[in-house]
C-alpha cells in the first residue's frame, strides 16, 4: 500500500519534484515501511520550512491518535 501512495503522489504532481515521509518500524536489521504521507507542494520558498515542520508534526500526531506507526524511517 505504501508504494501505491508514493506512485499516486508522484503522478498527481508530475513533473514537479515531490517529497514525503516514510513511517514504520526498525527492528534489528530489518526496516519495515508501513505507511507514508506526502509533504504539501508550495510555490513560495520563504515559509516552506516552518509550514513543513508544522504539517509534519500535525500529521504524525493524527497518525498516533489512530494507532498508526509514526516512527520516521525515511523521506
TrEMBL record:
InterPro entries: JAMM/MPN+_dom (IPR000555), JAMM_MPN+_peptidase_M67A (IPR050242), MPN (IPR037518). PROSITE patterns: MPN. Residues 1-75 form the MPN domain. The keyword Coiled coil does not apply. It comes from the Eukaryota. GO terms for molecular function: metallopeptidase activity; translation initiation factor activity. Keywords: Initiation factor, Protein biosynthesis. This is Eukaryotic translation initiation factor 3 subunit H. The lineage of its organism: Eukaryota, Viridiplantae, Streptophyta, Embryophyta, Tracheophyta. The gene is TIF3H1_0.
Amino acid at each position: 500500500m505504501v508504494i501505491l501512495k508514493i506512485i499516486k503522489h508522484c503522478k498527481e504532481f508530475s513533473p514537479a519534484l515531490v517529497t514525503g515521509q516514510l513511517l514504520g518500524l526498525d527492528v534489528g536489521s530489518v526496516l519495515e515501511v508501513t505507511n507514508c504521507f506526502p509533504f504539501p507542494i508550495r510555490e513560495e520558498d520563504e515559509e516552506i520550512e516552518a509550514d513543513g515542520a508544522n504539517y509534519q508534526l500535525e500529521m504524525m500526531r493524527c497518525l498516533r491518535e489512530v494507532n498508526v506507526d509514526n516512527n520516521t524511517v525515511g523521506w
